[in-house]
Backbone:
C-alpha cells in the first residue's frame, strides 16, 4: 500500500470572482487581492517540502502557483495537468452565478447549487447543468468524475510512498474532493476560499485508490 499527501490550493481571486460570474474553463486574470492571497498561501507553505508541484492549465491557477512557489525551496518545474481544471460550465460560462443556478435548479425545485447537492448529490448538480445547457456542453457528473480520478491516479502512480505534492486548482474541483473524501467538513456552507489549502491523503486500494481529507480551507 502507498500513501501520498496532496495539498490542493484554490487560485487567487479573479476579475470574474468579483463579478459573481461562473468561471470554469473560461479564464480571467488575478486581481491585486488575488495576487496578495497567492503570496499569503506561499508564506503558509514555504517550509513544506514538495516532491512535485502542479497546476491546472488555466492561467489563473498557473499564475497563483508561481506566486506560491516563490518563497519555497522547491527547485523543480511546475507541471500542468488538464485533469485539475475546474468543472466546465458549458454555455453558462461567464454568466451570473446565482441566476444560472436558479435556471439549472428549477426542474429540481432548488435555487442554488448547494441546495441541489444537499438534496440530491454533487453528480446530480453536474447532470442538471448539462441538461439545462442549450448546447449540452457542460460536464456531466460521470465525465467530471472520470477526469478527476484520472488525475489522482496519475499522481499515485508517479510518486513514492510518503511523497507530498502541491496542486493549484479550483473551487468546485476542491469541493468535489471534500464531499467525497471529507464528509466531516461542511463544504456546502463554506465554499473553498481563494488561496485556501485543503490536504488530501491518497492511498492505493484494490481497485483504484481511496482518500481522506485531513484539513480543509486552511488560510493560516
Residues:
Amino acid at each position: 500500500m502507498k500513501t501520498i499527501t496532496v495539498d490542493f490550493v484554490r487560485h487567487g481571486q479573479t476579475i470574474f470572482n468579483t463579478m459573481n460570474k461562473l468561471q470554469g474553463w473560461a479564464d480571467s486574470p488575478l486581481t491585486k487581492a488575488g495576487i496578495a492571497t497567492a503570496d499569503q498561501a506561499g508564506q503558509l507553505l514555504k517550509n513544506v517540502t514538495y516532491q512535485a508541484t502542479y497546476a491546472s492549465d488555466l492561467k489563473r491557477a498557473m499564475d497563483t502557483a508561481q506566486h506560491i512557489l516563490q518563497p519555497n525551496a522547491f527547485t523543480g518545474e511546475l507541471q500542468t495537468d488538464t485533469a485539475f481544471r475546474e468543472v466546465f460550465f458549458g454555455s453558462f460560462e461567464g454568466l451570473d452565478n446565482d441566476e444560472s443556478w436558479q435556471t439549472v435548479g428549477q426542474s429540481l425545485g432548488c435555487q442554488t447549487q448547494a441546495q441541489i447537492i444537499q438534496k440530491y448529490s454533487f453528480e446530480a448538480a453536474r447532470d442538471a447543468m448539462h441538461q439545462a445547457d442549450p448546447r449540452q456542453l457542460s460536464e456531466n457528473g460521470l465525465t467530471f468524475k472520470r477526469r478527476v480520478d484520472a488525475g489522482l491516479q496519475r499522481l499515485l502512480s508517479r510518486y513514492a510512498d510518503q511523497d507530498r505534492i502541491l496542486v493549484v486548482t479550483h473551487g468546485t474541483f476542491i469541493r468535489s474532493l471534500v464531499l467525497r473524501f471529507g464528509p466531516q467538513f461542511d463544504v456546502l456552507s463554506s465554499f473553498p476560499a481563494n488561496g485556501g489549502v485543503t490536504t488530501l491523503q491518497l492511498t492505493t486500494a484494490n481497485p483504484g485508490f481511496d482518500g481522506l481529507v485531513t484539513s480543509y480551507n486552511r488560510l493560516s
The radius of gyration is 17 Å. The beta strands are 3-10, 52-55, 78-80, 164-169, 197-204, 209-218. Residues 3-86+139-218 form a domain with the Rossmann fold fold (CATH 3.40.50.1240). DSSP finds eight helices and six strands in the chain.
